[in-house]
Amino acid sequence: SQEQFNITTYDAMAVAIMTFEAFAGMWINAFIVSVICMSSVKRKTLNSNEKILLVVGCSRFWYLCISWVYSFLSVIYPHSLYVHPTLQLFVSTQSFFSYSSLWFSACLCVFYCIKIANFGNSFFIYLKVKIDRIVPWLLLGSVLFSLVIGIIAYETADQAHCNNRNSTGRGSFWKANIKMDKYFFPSFFIAGIGYAVSFMAVTFSALLLLFSLWKHKRNMQTNSMKDLSMDAHIKAMKCILSFFIMYSINFACLVLEMVYVTKKGSPVMFLILIFQYAFPGVHSLILIFGNPKLEKTLLRILP
């Protein structure tokens, strides 16, 4: 029918765009991981900044990979997602890598803020001295929180699957999918709390770094010499502000996703998925151009 043809065309267009974004994002994040790994092999050590970039690249690579496979199967072979525990595993692993990526990125913003900002507060000075020891614990905490989200997502998907097992006969998958979506709202709520906390961390990091930059610039007005600290402030500020803007848009997408999650084929849902697939690649590209070593390596291999 004409309606079926339109749905098929829409799905094909969505898969094509998401495939391009996913593979581009995977290449960008694989580049970050490979450069850092080769650098660590040569120097036999990793600094805190490289540790965070490494886990950010790994989590985003696997998030894009799993998300693309899930989207591809949902269009090409949707029946396979209702075979236990395929759907549960996809939802769980996708949630784990999605939120670990966001929390790792928030850790990167906090690291930049503490490392570069200048304040006379004794607690802030203590954090600046101990930040290299704190970073592994921040990363471990991010992994544990993301693991909790993944477990909750698995249990929610499993409960939804069990409650809809009798309604997934031939021709009734879309109806079952609508029924299943309502079970995901509790996990959306719990994950939203964690997302809001990481968003607040990014916001406070941006504000503190901006205030530090303003304070430092005011103190250096009488100095005409080039100030390296000012350059470091500006580079970190660009990175954090770019992530803050993208984080804000992603937060809006999360809210809209909870509203339009049951509306298959909605243009709003299509735009949300487009941005969610573009976010890991675009922000990682910003991180590359904000890191002299990664930028130099990229410009060297592109020709």
UniProtKB/TrEMBL annotation:
Record CDD domains: 7tm_TAS2R
Keywords: G-protein coupled receptor, Membrane, Receptor, Sensory transduction, Taste, Transducer, Transmembrane, Transmembrane helix
Membrane topology: Multi-pass membrane protein
Biological source species: Mionectes macconnelli
Protein name: Taste receptor type 2
Gene designation: Tas2r9_2
Ranges that cross the membrane: 12-41, 53-76, 96-114, 134-154, 183-211, 239-262, 268-290
Family (UniProt): Belongs to the G-protein coupled receptor T2R family.
Subcellular location: Membrane
GO MF annotation list: bitter taste receptor activity; G protein-coupled receptor activity
UniProt-listed InterPro entries: TAS2R
High-level lineage: Eukaryota, Metazoa, Chordata, Craniata, Vertebrata
Gene Ontology cellular component terms for the protein in this record: membrane
Top-level taxon in the UniProt lineage: Eukaryota
